């Protein structure tokens, strides 16, 4: 429900308030007798503060609330869920025998190091990510006696278990950008928006926070209807913000809610002098 448009919110609120709805093409309302269950991973209170969600609708929906904790907070569910998803794929492949009793001296179908990785992984994509990993593991290991990780999946599941070595004063390794740990498809619009705001619309820092590639975050921004691009800003809006913020680029990025780097380009194109130019 957190992704519902303003029009849908109005219609839903009207049905909840009056208990009636108009079928398509009808001239008379029809009484309803329903119990509604709504779900979202968005921060609706924050959306209300931003004017993107109607508070009366939230109050109507929140008759009784249930919070479903993320998978990383209920690791006891990882094993049974993985087994459920793996069994579905094994049945489809005709290899369900991997889950039945077998020679106790044979290698286990689920290697212990892989099981540890699955249990310790933070699962930022929650159950959807676990289901996809189970599918890829089973399909990628079909015809084999045990599950094996391919290079790409191993990269996704890697863990920094060992503490980093302390560099010596004479040999400090050069800094490099941290590799992406998540798929961009795992990042929702609300999570993207929160990360951008937390890092003052510095795209590079937001991408690092979200653990996705910087190139991916630009694609997410372009596909998000609630996020504007610096190129969408009018000259009047840019000039007004420039003077209101006294040329402070950080303050302008927060005020206009656009990429700081792209905003700097627009400012220079207009011949305005920012404090970071």
Kindly describe this structure.
The structure is a single chain. With 277 residues, this protein is mainly alpha-helical. The protein has 4 domains: 6-62, no CATH class; 71-157, Orthogonal Bundle (Helicase, Ruva Protein, domain 3); 184-223; 235-270. 47% of the residues lie in helices and 1% in strands. It is built from 13 helices and 2 strands, in the order αββαααααααααααα. The protein has helices at residues 6-18, 44-49, 55-61, 78-93, 112-120, 126-140, 151-157, 189-198, 203-210, 214-223, 235-244, 249-256, 260-269, and strands at residues 20-21, 30-31. It has a two-stranded antiparallel ribbon with strand order 1-2. Helix 11 (235-244) packs across helix 12. It is flat. 15% of the residues are buried.
Order of helices and strands: HEEHHHHHHHHHHHH
Stated plainly, the CATH topology of the largest domain is called Helicase, Ruva Protein, domain 3
Low-confidence stretches: 159-179
| End-to-end C-alpha gap | 43 Å
What is the CATH top level name of the largest domain? Mainly Alpha
Strand content: under 5%
> How many individual domains?
4
Task: Give the overall form.
Answer: flat
Kindly name the structural category: mainly alpha
Helix content: 40-55%
CA-atom Rg in angstroms: 25 Å
Task: Please tell me the overall pLDDT.
Answer: 81
Multimeric state of these chains?
single chain
Strand order of the largest sheet: 1-2
Q: Total strand count, please? A: 2
Number of helices: 13
CATH architecture heading of the largest domain? Orthogonal Bundle
**Most strands sheet:** 2 strands, antiparallel
Protein name: Mutant NtrC-like activator
Pfam family, one: AAA_lid_14
Keywords: ATP-binding, Nucleotide-binding, Transcription, Transcription regulation
Organism: Myxococcus xanthus
